[in-house]
């Protein structure tokens, strides 16, 4: 079979369209081999973009990790508050626990830092260190009015 193929192969000639296509492909391959030197600036820009995106990805992953931890704490709090028998062992209290109405009137508390500043101004029995103010500035706590209520309750005790 191969002898017949070898004998007939000298008669085969490629169609002109295929020959032209091969030449075009060879020419484009040679041009693309020369092109990288001209595109060095593009490569630098792409690398810069890549590094920038990696930094943004790291930041987003850190934010996601922090949010996962927060969700985990919330789930643990919910599980503790909804567990059977949680409220059965609670001591009887004559007075209801102070609610949102326990916060004295004034300008609304928007941040934990504002709650700490307000508690420092209004409460006589509490002493705040400078570190309390700086940590309050960085606090991720989402309910500053509760922080103020807690500080007011500590002042009463």
TrEMBL record:
Region span, Disordered: 80-106
Coiled-coil ranges from the UniProt annotation: 43-77
Entry keywords, A to Z: Coiled coil
Tree of life domain: Eukaryota
Protein name: Uncharacterized protein
Source organism of this protein record: Hemiselmis andersenii
UniProt lineage: Eukaryota, Cryptophyceae, Cryptomonadales, Hemiselmidaceae, Hemiselmis
């Amino acid at each position: 079979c191969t002898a017949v193929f070898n004998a007939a192969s000298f008669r085969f000639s490629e169609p002109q369209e295929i020959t032209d296509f091969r030449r075009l492909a060879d020419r484009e391959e040679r041009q693309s081999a020369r092109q990288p030197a001209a595109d060095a600036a593009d490569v630098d820009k792409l690398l810069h973009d890549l590094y920038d995106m990696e930094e943004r990805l790291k930041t987003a992953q850190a934010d996601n990790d922090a949010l996962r931890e927060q969700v985990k704490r919330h789930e643990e709090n919910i599980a503790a508050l909804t567990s059977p028998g949680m409220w059965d062992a609670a001591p009887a209290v004559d007075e209801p626990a102070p609610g949102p109405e326990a916060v004295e009137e004034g300008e609304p508390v928007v941040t934990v830092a504002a709650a700490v500043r307000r508690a420092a101004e209004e409460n006589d029995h509490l002493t705040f260190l400078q570190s309390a103010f700086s940590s309050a500035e960085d606090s991720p706590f989402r309910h500053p009015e509760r922080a103020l209520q807690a500080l007011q309750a500590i002042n009463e005790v």
